[in-house]
Amino acid sequence: MKDSQKDMYKSMRIVAPGTLLREGLESVVRAKTGALIVVGDNEEVLKIVDGGFNINSDFTPAYLYELAKMDGAIILSSDCKKILYANAQLIPDQSILSRETGIRHRTAERVAKQTDTLVIAISQRRNIITLYKGNNKYVLRESSEILDKANQAIQTLEKYKNVLNQDMGNLTALEFEDLVTVYDMVKVIQRLEMVMRISDEIERYILELGNEGRLISMQLDELMSGVVEDGINIIKDYSNWPNKSHDEIRKSIRELSSEELLDFYTIARTMGYDGGISALDTSIYPKGYRILGKIPRLPIGVLENLVKMFGSFQKILKASTKELDLVEGIGEVRARTIKEALRRFQEQIFLDRHII
User: Any bridge partners for residue 50, and if so which?
Assistant: First the structure.
């Protein structure tokens, strides 16, 4: 996610339903007076403020509503706890490009670009709240509309998660059988990233819904449980880059365009495999991070020692209890626990596969 997008999402949280600022904004919308509000009191903002009244009063929705009846801009402190100025004239650099047509919105866009501050414009005629932050613009929508879209996105996520679970189960079975190819790994990474992108969209809805998005947030948490960890561990298992961290590779995958994500060869190259015609048929061997990571109470340090000593999941799987006991941090009891957990995993995955 780009930094500019993160800034806009933070701004959406500031004006989310349930906040005092959103309450004040909605009062202005209902009154059909319009408003221009700057959330920030840094030096760049104060340079372009001319005239108005020095209020310096604690913020309340009622004060914002009353002050919006005047024509000028309202300046709030960065934490939205103080109303600093009202009825102020803003004089941004007129050479800054703006595609807005109304004076209020054109001023808001220029101020946001010049100061990198959150600026809120409320249209008097259309009753629309528009956020400007840096070069970004976002029009707030009715909570009911956002909730409908969020519910639709949750349903889509459920479908994609079911497909991901099937592919992940197939990958696990192939790992136990030592039959994984680049194609099998790439397919799961593609599914994981698709699920992540739907999750990102739902998180944006939750931000905009504020306290009205609690139920959606709970559903998202349940659906996404373990997904991020699985994604990281698959990269650790299969990365073919000797000098790239899993974070760097994950970032590269996250930055793939929608079209690139549909191309298995592109994902394979991102993981460090040759993009040739036969690349997807190449046999590959996991280190064991993902499956071992599912063993309860197995510390990450011990897991790392296991992978370092044996080098691959198959060697760990075939190791005897005595051989496992030789790994630093693994005693006889933990060695037996690992062997038993792997046996149960293997039985369960083949049982699930048979049922399907």
Answer: 89
The pLDDT tens digits of the residues spanning 77-107 come to 999 999 999 999 999 999 999 989 889 999 9
Q: Is 14 exposed, middle or buried (0-12, 13-18, 19+ CB in 10 A)?
A: buried
Say which DSSP state 54 is in. E
Query: Phi and psi for 19 in degrees, rounded to 5?
Result: -85, 155
- What is the longest distance spanned by two Cα atoms in the chain? 81
The b-or-e profile of 299-313 (16+ CB within 10 A means b, else e) is eeebbbebbebbeeb
> Which pLDDT value is given to residue 188?
98
Distance, in Å, from the CA atom of 37 to the CA atom of 51, rounded to the nearest integer, reads 15
Q: Which residues of 36-46 are buried (b: 16+ CB within 10 A; e: fewer)?
A: bbbbbbeeebe
pLDDT above 70 covers a percentage of the chain that reads 97
Q: Measured in whole angstroms, how far is the alpha carbon of residue 177 from the centre of its chain? A: 34
Q: What is the rounded distance in angstroms from the CA atom of residue 120 to the CA atom of residue 122?
A: 7
How far is it, in rounded angstroms, from Cα 276 to Cα 286? 21
